[in-house]
Amino acid sequence: MARRRQLYEGKAKILFEGPEPGTLVQYFKDDATAFNAQKKGVITGKGVLNNRISEYLMQRLGEIGIPTHFVRRLNMREQLIREVEIIPVEVVVRNVAAGSLSARLGIQEGTRLPRSIVEYYYKNDALNDPMVSEEHITAFGWAHPADMDDIVNLTLRINDFLTGLFLGVGISLIDFKVEFGRLWENEDMRIVLADEISPDNCRLWDAKTNEKMDKDRFRRDLGRVEEAYQEVARRLGILPEAGVRDVKGPEIMQ
Ligand code: UDP
Question: Is there a domain that residue 9 lies in?
Answer without folding.
Answer: yes
